[in-house]
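S1.2 Input.
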Amino acid sequence: MQHRSSHFDCAFSPAEIAMLQRVLNTACLAAGMPRNDYRADRLAKFIIGEFRSGIRAEAALCERALWFERRSAPWSPARDH
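S1.3 Output.
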């Protein structure tokens, strides 16, 4: 099966999946966010959307992900302490 990421409803290649996972892991670590947090799910969706919109460089995706998390943080519900 051929993977093509140029079409909106397509599968990702193994290399693309690995890169997207690295971006998510890096952003979660930088934000101090556990991977099982609802915010990590929201961030993953954002990263995939950015990738599908044409941002393909790993560093640029990381930067966008961190921007998104910082922008979203004030609206996040209070954490349980």
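S1.4 Remarks. Residues 41 and 79 are 16 Å apart (CA to CA).
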